[in-house]
User: Which sequence fits this backbone?
């Protein structure tokens, strides 16, 4: 094992004859063995690009998953070379297809036999590679607009189970990729167990500002049930998306639309104090203080410190009301707290 790790500390450079020079400099990098299963995919309706992963490895998402809006998504694993991700994105940004990018990078790697990588470009072209020395059970399966890959699995057949789950699942790209990961786990998953998971989804069009189209970027770094936690975080993000739309509706003066969005968020996480508090603040700003009192009452009963925020919000104009109204809220909210 030590000898294998030693020979992985090399430098790779795509020849200058290619339109884009890509350097995979391994100085100081020991070729860490990140065994895992993952999926790269594109939503044909929205053009969004995604990649998701689970492994028995701490913070797997920081190493394995790569994506850029309108350019592509990459999963690099096994004896991992993270620079495969950056290099593939560089090449696809220069209009190389997923297959061209993968072929170029693998060709220049003196040890492709220990790599596993999958790439999807912005047009939905897919390419994958599983080296012959990836630890069994290992393999990949490329489908229409996606690739699933796994190594060091407890049982054979994980890519097939993932592909079946992804193609049959309902919902958006995030839910379908999560379904693929869950199918892998049900089939036995990583021989060593589970520890971390991550998901990254970006937009289908490049704007020159990648962070603007980072639609999902969730990481579970260390957890006994990382996929369950990833699913919870995904639902929580959906709820906060409703909160954000509610805020935008308030800015546009559409109180009814805002309250509808806030209500949707709270219905998803009824015990979330933050959502309930800002919903109540928006009611006050809309001149509907009476309706806010049960919400404030529930918040203050759970976490009394939130009372301290009201005057501070008033000082900076976020809570647009008088001191008398704030005093009323603090004094009466508890009387209106809904029964639990």
Assistant:
């Amino acid at each position: 094992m030590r000898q294998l790790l030693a020979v992985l500390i090399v430098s790779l450079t795509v020849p200058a004859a290619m339109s884009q020079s890509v350097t995979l400099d391994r100085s100081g990098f020991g070729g860490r063995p990140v065994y895992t299963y993952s999926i790269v995919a594109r939503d044909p309706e929205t053009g969004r690009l995604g990649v998701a992963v689970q492994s028995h490895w701490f913070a797997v998402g920081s190493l394995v998953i790569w994506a850029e809006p309108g350019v592509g998504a990459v999963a690099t694993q096994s004896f991992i070379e993270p620079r495969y991700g950056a290099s593939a994105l560089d090449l696809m940004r220069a209009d190389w297809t997923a297959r061209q990018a993968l072929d170029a990078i693998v060709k220049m790697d003196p040890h492709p036999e220990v790599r596993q990588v999958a790439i999807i470009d912005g047009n939905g072209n897919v390419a994958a590679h599983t080296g012959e020395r990836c630890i069994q059970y290992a393999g990949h399966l490329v489908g229409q607009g996606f690739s699933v890959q796994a190594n060091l699995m407890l049982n054979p057949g994980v890519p097939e189970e993932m592909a079946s789950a992804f193609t049959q699942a309902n919902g958006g790209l995030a839910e379908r990729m999560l379904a693929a990961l869950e199918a892998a786990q049900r089939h036995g998953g990583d021989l060593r167990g589970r520890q971390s998971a991550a998901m990254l989804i970006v937009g289908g069009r490049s704007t020159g500002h990648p962070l603007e189209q980072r639609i999902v970027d969730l990481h579970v770094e260390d957890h006994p049930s990382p996929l369950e936690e990833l699913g919870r975080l995904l639902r929580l993000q959906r709820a906060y998306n409703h909160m954000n739309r509610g805020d935008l509706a308030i800015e546009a003066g559409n109180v009814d639309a805002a309250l509808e969005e806030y209500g949707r968020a709270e219905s998803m996480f009824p015990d979330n104090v933050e959502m309930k508090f800002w919903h109540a603040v928006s009611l006050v700003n809309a001149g509907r203080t009476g309706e806010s009192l049960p919400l404030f009452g529930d918040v203050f009963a759970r976490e009394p410190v939130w009372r301290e925020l009201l005057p501070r919000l008033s000082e900076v104009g976020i809570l647009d009301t008088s001191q008398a109204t704030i005093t009323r809220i603090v004094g009466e909210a508890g009387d209106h707290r809904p029964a639990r």
In short: The chain has a mean pLDDT of 87.
